[in-house]
Amino acid sequence: MGTVLKGGYVVELEPAVVERVDLRIEGERIVARGPDLETTPDDEVVALSGKLVFPGLVSAHHRLHAILARGMPNVVRETYQDTLEKGLWPYEDALDLDAVQVAGCAGGLEALQCGTTTVCNLHSSPKAVSGSLVRLARGLHEVGVRGVLAYAVSDRSGAVVREEGLEETVGFAQKAQGRFRGQVGAGPGFTLGPDALQGLVEALKATHSGMHLPLAEDPLDERLSTERHGASPVSRLLELGLLSPKCQLAHVGHLDWAELAQVIATGAWMVHTPRANQGLEVGYAPALKFGARATLGADGVSADLFAEAQAAYLRSREAGQPIDVLRYLANGHRMVSQHFGMPVGPMREGALADLLVLDYLPATPLTGENLAWHVVFGLGSRHVEAVMVDGVWRMWARRPLSVNPSVVSEQAREAASAVWARMGEAR
C-alpha cells in the first residue's frame, strides 16, 4: 500500500526541472517516479490535476521561541547592543519550559502552513535549560515538522548555565532520532570565553556533529570579542578547529574578505538571513560571496521561506550581486540530507518524502529554465495546499491534520502574556 500522486508537475530545484510525472510514496520515502504509474486497489491515489509538487522548504537558521516575542512591548532598538541586552536576552531569561514547548508547537505550525518542513533551530532559555530541546521537539512533533535542534551555549549567564547548556545540547544530539537530529549550539563569539570554547570542542567530539552559531551579525561581535578575549571570533574558532563542513554559520555579515575566505575554506554552511538582517538594521550580508555552500534561514522572522528567498534575491539585485536563489534553496536540502544521512529534497526514488502540493496556476509558461522567476515573482506560501513530511500528510486542503490552529494560537497568546509579565517583574 502506498500513496500515488498523479497528474502533478513535479519540481526539482537544482538542476531546475518541472516535469509532469507521477510519484509513488511508500513509508517515509519516494519509491517510484514516472509517467502514468500503475496503482493497486490498496493505494491512496491523489489526483493533482496539474498542481505543483514542490520540495518541502528548509530554514537553516531558525529561532522558534521568537514567535512568542511578536509585538512585545517596550523593546528598545536604538542599537544592536540595546536590542540584545534590553530586548532579546531579558525575553529569553523569562522563558520557562512550558513556554518553550508552546513556542515549538506554534512555530512549527507556522512553518507547516508556509511549506517549511524542516527547521534548524538554535535555542536559548537560560532560566530553563535542562529539557528545553526535548520540549521544543515535543512541540514540533505535535505538528509533524522535521527539526535539527541545538542549545546556544554561552557565558553570558555564568558558568553554571554554560555547563547546563553544554549538557543539554550534547544530550539531545546523542539521543535524537526519527524526524529529529541534534547539533552543538553556541551564542555569538563575544559571549564565549575560553572555557566555553573548550567545552564546545569536547561537545563536538562527543556528538560527532557540527556546530550551529551566529557569526558577525553586527560589527559588535568582532569588537567585543577582541576587547574581551584578545582576538576576533573567526580567529578563535579556527584556532580550536571548531569550523568544519558539518557546521552552519548564520548571518556572516561583517567579515573582511580574508576572514570570509578562511571561513569558506573550512566547508561550513553559510546561512543568509536577509529579512532578519533588515529588521535589526545590521546591514546587508554579501551573500554572493558566500561560496557554494550558502543557504537561507528565517531566524526569528516568520518561517516563510518563499518570502525569505524573494527577499534574498531582491536585496542581492539591489546590491548589484544577484544570487542563484534556486541553489540557495536546494542547499538547504543538501545540508539537511547531511544531518539525517539520507536524501531530503530531491523528488526522486530513495529520497525522504517531504513535499508540498501548491495550488499555483501560473499566468505564463512554467519550465525549468524560468522556475527561478516564478519562485521570486509568483510563488508564495499562499499557494501551499497540502504538506507531507516523512511520507505522512501533515496538512491537507490548507488544514493542519494533527493540531487545531485556534487552540495552538490561544495557548501561544497565554504563554506570551506570561513571559511578558515575567519580563516586567524582572525590570
From TrEMBL:
<dbReference type="InterPro" id="IPR050287">
    <property type="entry name" value="MTA/SAH_deaminase"/>
</dbReference>
<dbReference type="InterPro" id="IPR006680">
    <property type="entry name" value="Amidohydro-rel"/>
</dbReference>
<dbReference type="Pfam" id="PF01979">
    <property type="entry name" value="Amidohydro_1"/>
</dbReference>
<protein>
    <submittedName>
        <fullName>Amidohydrolase family protein</fullName>
    </submittedName>
</protein>
<dbReference type="InterPro" id="IPR011059">
    <property type="entry name" value="Metal-dep_hydrolase_composite"/>
</dbReference>
<keyword id="KW-0378">Hydrolase</keyword>
<dbReference type="InterPro" id="IPR032466">
    <property type="entry name" value="Metal_Hydrolase"/>
</dbReference>
<feature type="domain" description="Amidohydrolase-related">
    <location>
        <begin position="52"/>
        <end position="393"/>
    </location>
</feature>
